[in-house]
Design goal:
70 residues, mainly beta, three-stranded parallel sheet, two-stranded parallel ribbon
Length: 70
């Protein structure tokens, strides 16, 4: 995945993993722009949403809830 934009995404997630960007070491994702994300976890426990990334060259813009690529 290269040259992709994820912008202005809003909503709820029933899973603690709201956004999951996983790319391989052999083919890392490059030039992935992520901006203005607001995903709220509304699952059954007191957890918070997460947004992990692996092998992603991310360009982060704007606000991120949850924090993206941590």
């Amino acid at each position: 995945m290269n040259n992709v934009r994820y912008n202005n995404i809003r909503g709820t997630s029933s899973s603690e993993v709201a956004v999951n960007l996983m790319c391989s070491k052999e083919n890392p994702c490059q030039n992935v722009e992520i901006g203005d994300i607001n995903m709220v976890y509304n699952g059954g426990n007191e957890g918070r949403a997460t947004s992990p990334c692996s092998n992603v060259e991310a360009i982060l813009r704007g606000n991120h809830n949850p924090t993206t690529c941590t």
